[in-house]
Design a protein that fits this description.
single chain; alpha/beta; Rossmann fold; seven-stranded mixed sheet; two-stranded antiparallel ribbon; 9 strands
């Protein structure tokens, strides 16, 4: 069984058991999910003041049941969610207004070259399958970065976790950071919310403010 079938089977089984709930995505509860979302998107607004720009677009990779839409900070964004699980996609199309778009498919096989201001991914890379997870993570991050205009963010379970589950893969933060630095040195590694996972945020902007010698942002 290849990684895609394994991943799809895992979430289909969760969905059969838990139906429309955070547990269908492998989450403990909705509160922890939204804390995770905050880690993913909070630095977008601190850097570029995007909350004031209603024209920004965001791609949610592995969107699941579309819970990210419930975050008030992206209510006015042009939102697109992509997931390989058709059960999730069909539910989302019925639940959410038509202004939100959903795609059923594999992000790495996405042939649409459309770019998005922001691209986020939460939890999709943490399920243990038989492939080189670091190479796979790098492919994922590179495609996200290539298709973004402003920034991307992605979270990973950490090798620093004290308790580990057999079904999950845990990443060495230093190895992921090394991969990220191949793309940009304007980045954040955030590990101050959950002790067992970390988030990386990568910015496309490489312009330097000559006065302060810092990255130049639009505030």
């Amino acid at each position: 069984m290849n990684y895609k079938k394994q991943n799809l089977e895992y979430y289909c089984n969760l969905f059969k058991k838990n139906k429309y709930s955070p547990q269908s995505l492998g989450w403990k509860n909705k509160k922890s999910a939204f804390m995770r979302f905050n880690d993913l998107i909070s630095n977008f607004f601190l850097k570029e003041n995007s909350i004031l720009n209603k024209k920004n677009s965001i791609l949610d990779v592995g969107c699941g049941l579309g819970y990210l839409i419930d975050d008030f900070r992206i209510k006015n964004f042009f939102y697109t969610g992509i997931d390989i699980n058709n059960n999730f996609i069909e539910l989302n199309k019925k639940k959410f207004p038509k202004k939100y778009s959903f795609i059923c498919g594999d992000f790495l096989e996405l042939k649409n070259k459309k770019k998005y201001d922001y691209i986020v991914q939460s939890g999709l890379l943490n399920y243990k399958v038989k492939l080189n997870k670091y190479s796979y993570a790098e492919m994922f991050l590179r495609k996200m970065f290539h298709l973004s205009n402003i920034a991307i963010s992605c979270n990973f379970l950490s090798t620093k976790a004290r308790i580990k589950h057999k079904k999950n893969f845990y990443y060495d933060p230093e190895k992921i950071l090394k991969i990220c630095y191949k793309m940009t040195n304007n980045l954040i590694l955030k590990n101050d919310t959950f002790p067992f996972e970390f988030t990386v945020v990568l910015f496309k902007n490489k312009k330097i403010d000559k006065l302060t010698s810092t990255f130049a942002y639009k505030f």
